[in-house]
């Protein structure tokens, strides 16, 4: 006896179709350790597994079953808000790079590193006992507003199609990029317990917190590097209200937090700003 034909759609096909139909922006929490690309791939893999895809390969670019990207690279050592675009929402990621961002940075006086953060090798040590809280607060004024800043050598910026950080790790000689204009909307000293100090920073696109801390150390007749860094806000997304933790990387939670893009926004070709890293 012939089997009965039905028009029902399998749960796997249905879940995957729903996932692929998403268009918009949302935010996830990036922990210390993985790169921003690692976080995106882990997110895609979790969603594809939930949708019932067998042996998903989120790193495979050709014939991707899920279109997704992130806006604004965070260093592997940094944590915080990472904005993700899904579907046509990826067209809006460049706008997120130019928007306002907020960071909390812990700097350490007396030691400079080649990467300008705690992941690098110490290349210089200087006294810092002469530095007081009023000294730091006074110097911060020079780094507020529209300023010129030299990006770090270890960064996501590229030369001949390759990231400067990759070229350096391969042993190639890399020249510093020229200073470029950046904007700092607010810069506050939250805590001062030498050799550590904590800054609250609100800035625009293309800004490097590592360069700020390095420059501040020099301005104080010493040196400094970033010990810890957390991005607390990117565009409209904040760490406390919007960033989904790993246990929330599900279709249900993304649907609840997804900010859909209007047709007008999606129809506008967005200019691509310089690649940034913190």
Automatic annotation (TrEMBL):
| Family matches, as HAMAP family | TruB_bact
- All copies of the Pseudouridine synthase II N-terminal domain together span 61-209
- Give compartment(s): Cytoplasm, Cytosol; Nucleus
For this protein, the Enzyme Commission number is 5.4.99.25
Return any one Pfam family short name: TruB_N
Where on the tree of life does the source sit, at the highest rank?
Answer: Eukaryota
The entry sums up its family as follows: Belongs to the pseudouridine synthase TruB family.
PANTHER family assigned to the protein according to its UniProt record, in alphabetical order: PSEUDOURIDYLATE SYNTHASE TRUB1, TRNA-PSEUDOURIDINE SYNTHASE
Q: Does the keyword Signal apply?
A: no
Main location (coarse class): cytoplasm
GO CC annotations, alphabetized: cytosol; nucleus
What positions does the domain tRNA pseudouridylate synthase B C-terminal occupy? 210-256
Quick one: a GO biological-process term for this protein? mRNA processing
Protein name (database record): Pseudouridylate synthase TRUB1
